[in-house]
Amino acid sequence: AQKITQTQPGMFVQEKEAVTLDCTYDTSDQSYGLFWYKQPSSGEMIFLIYQGSYDEQNATEGRYSLNFQKARKSANLVISASQLGDSAMYFCAMRRPPGNTPLVFGKGTRLSVIA
Amino acid sequence: GAVVSQHPSWVICKSGTSVKIECRSLDFQATTMFWYRQFPKQSLMLMATSNEGSKATYEQGVEKDKFLINHASLTLSTLTVTSAHPEDSSFYICSASRQGSAGELFFGEGSRLTVL
Q1: A91 touching B, CB under 8 A?
Q2: What is the pLDDT of residue A101?
């Protein structure tokens, strides 16, 4: 079974600063994908970044980067130059290789960006 | 990017009635869609996997007779909450994957159900 653990229920960050949201995972699969989604108060799920288990380089998407440490089974999200609009819930998730498999989510971290 | 549309966004109904929620993939075909449920301040919990042309696969603890899922075409899956009760009040959100993408799921806007 796959399991995602996010140990930070809430985080605060000053505007323009960087912040790291922690995520660890557990799986017996050799091939898997790791994802981060943002959920603002409106409820929509916004895809941020993806890391494949065989990718050697850490994924980056604009201000988002994923610090992937396979041996530690961690996939932390780093948001650089935080903006007020970054305030939201952030979910780490994983999935078996693309196909008819669902995402398994962690409990989420609520990020609040302070002006 | 791929778009998944969900309707209605909000629904309020009386206890005992049934409510249907639609999930459409607008610009791609989705042989599989997933239905999640989210209680306030909690994570998304998978309810069922909806497969086009076949019966849905329900997660343990989800009543298949209460949450009817129909995936009649490659672009439409529906979730019907039958004989709704106040404890069914929740945020329901569907998702689908598209071939050729990185593997991320595309989510609908979600449907907030309130049962009075």
Answers
A1: yes
A2: 87
